[in-house]
Amino acid sequence: MRLPFKLEVLSAWWSLGRSRRSFERDPESHQRAMWHRFQQRVLTKAPLYRDRHSDPLSDFPIQEKAEFMRDFKHINTCGLSLSDAMDVAVKSEESRDFKPTIDGITVGLSSGTSGNRGLFLASDQERAVWVAAVLQRILGWSFRKRRIAFFLRANNNLYSSVQSRFISFKFFDLLDPLAEHLVNIDRMKPDVVVGQPSLLIRLADAQTQSAIDIAPSKIISVAEVLSQEDESHIQATFGIDVDQVYQCTEGLFGQTCAHGTIHLNEDWLLIEKEWIDDTRFVPIITDLRRESQPVLRYRMNDILHAGSCTCGSKMQAISQIEGRMDDVLILGEEITLFPDFIRRAVVGAHPDIVDYQVVQVSSQELSLYLSHQALWGLASEALQEMLLRHGLTDIILTFTNSKIHSHGSKLRRIIALRT
Questions:
Q1: What are phi and psi of 6, to 5 degrees?
Q2: Angle, alpha carbons 52-58-62 (nearest 5°)
Q3: Which whole-number Å values give the CA distances from 209 to 182, 220, 232, 384, in the listed order?
Q4: How confident is the model over 356-389, as pLDDT tens digits?
Q5: Which pLDDT tens digit goes with each residue over 321-355?
Q6: Which residues have a Cβ under 8 Å from the Cβ of 213 and sit 6 or more positions away?
Q7: What is the C-alpha to C-alpha distance for residues 341 and 383, in angstroms, rounded to an integer?
Q8: Partners of residue 375 on adjacent β-strands
Q9: N or C, where is the chain less crowded by C-beta within 10 Å?
Q10: Which domains does the chain have, with CATH numbers?
Q11: pLDDT tens for each residue of 227-251
């Protein structure tokens, strides 16, 4: 007999707290025990893994989204087919009614930033764990009722699960007009605002222009890369630090600690690092708490910078989420430029440059958009100087007066050419 959902959350809260303390005492021992439990309780139920569930982690193949979706039916432990789950998810997207489940399992659909769209599954128990993690590590516990404004492209039973007598949760659909959101958020006066940086910037601009008057105690950036210039603008406008959550379709991977540093949740994640250079790496994730849809050696498309933190936690500190591997530019004679090189050159040209986009048109051409068009000359000069430092002497820079960004989608500042 299952516990009522709120008791499931309390149980998960206690379990996560114990898990964290166990990890901090002895990370290696804790992860070995969690991996063994995962092998016995989860992999034995997944058709793709059950015959080899006792193999060491390194013997399992590394997956990316294409393989993860191709093997959906044989990975999930619920007996769900990809077509049935996708049908529920797509109908929810189209109707904007995100309550339907399939056999009691919540189904979510990724935004498809990296190409093909992904599906994620969550049982009631997994929803309880997610809610407990959000309350424990992101929002923090409070007996004072808090109003949360949550801006995202799609709602989900997972997100609305945080609703309680202590939390009033309101979903703001990014597909709706911004003008409507400004009226509603001004009326709501939220204590917590959660949204992607491109939306948070627009709220900051509205606050500056007196279109809204809100005073949140916490602002949380999700979904997109939070650049230093955007973070500074949001912080200066609202007078508080911006927290970050590193969450993808594949799971909740990390969040900002009290010292302002992102830490990966290694008390339930095994993270293999595919090193790019001395600090940059691509994470390969194994989530030891996902049971309905095991995530095993899943290669993310993100570029993370390993860092350090003074908070004392042994969980991996991340100094920066730079972007996606899809945003790495290959120019000229196969010269690699990371997104941060581009960003620093453009925003470093003038302090008023905050809204920009660089698109690779070809191996020899980049287009540059700036909201402050009068500063285009300075930005293009700085960009050319950076290209020259990397040995790129024949790259053409062209002007564009519009950026690639559809309403409600994630904003990408750097867009690489992919053929």
A1: -65, -35
A2: 90
A3: 12, 22, 17, 35
A4: 889 988 889 999 999 888 888 898 899 999 898 8
A5: 988 887 788 888 788 888 888 888 888 888 888 88
A6: 186, 207
A7: 9
A8: none
A9: N
A10: 5-122 (no CATH), 142-249 (3.40.50.980), 328-415 (3.30.70.2210)
A11: 888 899 999 999 999 999 998 877 8
Q: Which amino acid is at 331?
A: L
**Amino acid (one-letter) located at 103:** D
What would the 3-class secondary structure string for the chain be?
CCCCHHHHHHHHHHHHHHHHHHHHHCHHHHHHHHHHHHHHHCHHHCCCCHHHCCCCHHHCCCECHHHHHHCHHHHCCCCCCHHHHHHHHHHHHHHCCCCCEECCEEEEECCCCCCCCCEEEECHHHHHHHHHHHHHHHHCCCCCCEEEEEEECCCCHHHHCCCCCCEEEEEEECCCCHHHHHHHHHHHCCCEEEECHHHHHHHHHHHHCCCCCCCCCEEEECCCCCCHHHHHHHHHHHCCCEEEEEEECCEEEEEECCCCCEEECCCCEEEEEEECCCCEEEEEEEECCCCCCCEEEEECCEEEEECCCCCCCCCCEEEEEEEEHHHCEEECCCEEECHHHHHHHHHCCCCCCCCEEEEEEECCEEEEEECCHHHHHHHHHHHHHHHHHCCCCCCEEEEECCCCCCCCCCCCCEECCCC
**How far is residue 325 from each of residues 301, 415, 416, measured CA to CA in Å?**
5, 10, 9
| pLDDT at residue 159, as a whole number | 55
Full-model pTM: 0.84
Predicted local confidence at residue 161, as pLDDT: 58
Residue pair 108/156 in contact (Cβ under 8 Å)? The answer is: yes
Identify the pLDDT of residue 130. 85
Q: What angle do CA 45, 73, 57 make, to 5 degrees?
A: 50
Closest by CA position to 238, among listed 265, 216, 210, 266: 216
What does the angle CA 13 – CA 15 – CA 20 come to, to the nearest 5 degrees? 95
